[in-house]
Design goal:
Blueprint (H helix, E strand, L loop, with lengths): L11 E3 L2 E7 L15 H27 L2 E12 L8 E12 L2 E10 L2 E14 L9 H7 L11
Antiparallel strand pairs: 1-2, 2-4, 3-6, 4-5, 5-6
Helix pairs in contact: 1-2
Length: about 150
């Protein structure tokens, strides 16, 4: 799917970055109206799923039909600021690597220009038997135009 195409509810690709809007609901917050910390993982999972659906729907379906799926192997979060009840936020997702059996993404939860949470996640492609398997070539090829090497500060 090209960067200009969209699907309802899937967000949009913008400059190689998937942008997924979220409204903070009461169910997402604690008693003080602040987003409960674990819910950022839910937001990131939804955004990653929708990014893959948007740019690689057919290869993802083929992978599932072959009995493979992605599981989270590693996840690191850096909380910077909270989101609150009824705010509009977005998850911006960039693939930074697609190799072997893994995909690595950098996801940033934003409120306008403010960074709320930075998430680095690595997912592994697994068989139904729970064994690692290579990311299918068709999927890797579909993701290549959207994969950006992470530039570390010098």
């Amino acid at each position: 799917m090209s960067e200009s195409q969209t699907q309802p509810g899937s967000g949009v690709m913008r400059d190689g970055c998937h942008v997924f809007p979220i409204r903070v609901y009461y169910e997402d917050t604690d008693a003080a109206g602040v987003v409960y910390y674990a819910n950022y993982l839910r937001f990131a999972e939804r955004a990653r799923t929708e990014m893959l659906r948007l740019v690689a729907e057919q290869p993802m379906r083929a992978m599932a039909a072959d009995g493979a799926a992605f599981v989270v192997r590693r996840c690191a979060l850096d909380y910077r600021a909270p989101a609150h009840l009824d705010e509009s936020i977005e998850v911006r997702s960039r693939l930074v690597a697609a190799k072997g059996a893994t995909l690595v993404a950098r996801q940033t939860v934003m409120r306008a220009a403010d960074v709320l949470v930075e998430i680095d996640v690595e997912v592994a492609c697994m068989t139904r038997a729970g064994r690692p398997t290579r990311v299918p070539a068709a999927l890797r090829d579909a993701l290549t135009p959207f994969t950006h090497s992470r530039k570390e500060p010098s």
